[in-house]
Amino acid sequence: MLSRSPACVRLLCTRPLCTRPLHSRPPMASDPSRPVETSIRAKLTVALQPVHLEVHNESHMHAVPPGSESHFRVLVVSSCFEGVSLLQRHRLVNDALKEELSTRVHALAIQAKSPEHWASGPSVSKSPGCLGGSKGDHTVQHKLQTD
């Protein structure tokens, strides 16, 4: 029997534990050239135990230096989201990625779906094109610097 992760339980403590099996896939190997993407993937996996997870680095679509890891889109399908409002789903994702969002990640687009919602229509939204907003954000350059 599977139980909800601590982040899941914190928000949904009155809900029964999940007994839906996870569809396991081998984890993606960590890539030292993509530490932020690797961290996002690992933290969402631990916190939300997704049945499907996609992490897309969309930094190349924005006004940032080549090789940046500052703009991401995630698709998380988790039983933690069953019966949970969209706002609460986003809060769970944001809580799991608190460190990344306060340091290197400038933008995060979130699709958070329950397995039932995903099964009824497995579609992925596309991100809009960049309007150059980060050009005027002087904190972006600082956030992109590695320690």
Distance between the termini: 41 Å
Largest sheet: 3 strands, mixed
Order of helices and strands: HHEEHHEHH
CATH architectural group: 2-Layer Sandwich
Q: What do you see in this structure?
A:
Helices cover 33% and strands 14% of the residues. The chain is α+β, with helices and mostly antiparallel strands. The chain has a single domain, classed as 2-Layer Sandwich (GMP Synthetase, Chain A, domain 3), CATH 3.30.300.90.
Secondary structure topology:
Elements (H helix, E strand, L loop, with lengths): L5 H6 L23 H14 L3 E6 L13 E7 L8 H11 L1 H5 L4 E7 L1 H6 L18 H6 L3
Parallel strand pairs: 2-3
Antiparallel strand pairs: 1-2
In short:
The chain has 147 residues and is α+β, with helices and mostly antiparallel strands.
Key descriptive features of the protein:
alpha+beta; 147 residues; GMP Synthetase, Chain A, domain 3
